[in-house]
Input
Amino acid sequence: MLLQLGDLLKSATGTKKIHEVFSDEIILDEFDIVSSSGLIWLTKINMGVWATTKILLNITSTCDRCLEKYNQVINIESDDIFYHFDYLGKNPELYDRIDSPEIFYIKDNMIELTESFRQNILVNMPIKLLCNLDCQGIVNKNNRISNTKLIDIENR
Output
């Protein structure tokens, strides 16, 4: 998601701008995002722009047990600093890490939030994706197959 900063970079330090996130704005290839809503607060700081994000995502996932699709809600809350290139140039310890995933920067008066969203989704998603806590796995007429063993239901 590219976000145009407009006149925020030309304004005084401490100036704030709010961006409302609409349903179709967040697109990530590795996640099936059904809907999104929330706010991004942008604050001009001497290093660049500070982005505070509070977004609610509805993502379609596949259950690890029964392999059925289901929707899950992911809450993203993050604080990221997007650096000016001139600030990075004056700080060699930051500039040397410019290609690392934790360094975000301003390019052409815009900030790219996609990587920040991707990282926050991965951190907030459960390790084991379950449609519900009581999911029994794949079920057919005669047998229930779990991820570890085949159980003959009739012989129980």
Remarks:
- The chain has one domain: 2-155.
- The first helix runs from residue 85 to 90.
- The longest strand covers residues 48-62.
